[in-house]
Specification:
Length: about 110
């Protein structure tokens, strides 16, 4: 029987004694070690935040307006037209790369 190597990272945190005690009590209540409790709780919260940030929730009215805008886009304005022309000038058609350099910072 072979065992696969699992890459693991380490997370450490220094917390006030009262925070540690609270975590120990909560972990004990669910039958987990403090480490297991912290990792499981942090992972659950991280997944919730990622889901919240990735998903756009719209009302039916807003979703209809959004889809109508996608189906019937406004014509490009002068700024967009200029940006597209600038892109075409800077684009290197041989490699598909863009000759781009950041603008100097204003002082």
């Amino acid at each position: 029987m072979s065992t696969a190597s699992i890459d693991r990272g380490r997370i450490t945190a220094r917390v006030p004694a009262d925070v540690q005690k609270t975590l120990e009590i909560a972990a004990g209540m669910v039958g987990a070690t403090v480490n297991q409790f912290i990792v499981q709780t942090a992972l659950r919260e991280a997944e919730r935040i990622i889901e919240q940030e990735r998903v756009i929730r719209l009302s039916e009215r807003d979703a209809d307006a959004f889809l109508r805008a996608l189906d019937n886009p406004l014509p490009p304005n002068e700024t967009l037209t200029a940006a597209l022309q600038d892109y075409a000038v800077r684009r290197d058609d041989h490699t598909g790369t863009l000759d781009w350099a950041p603008r100097p910072k204003r002082v």
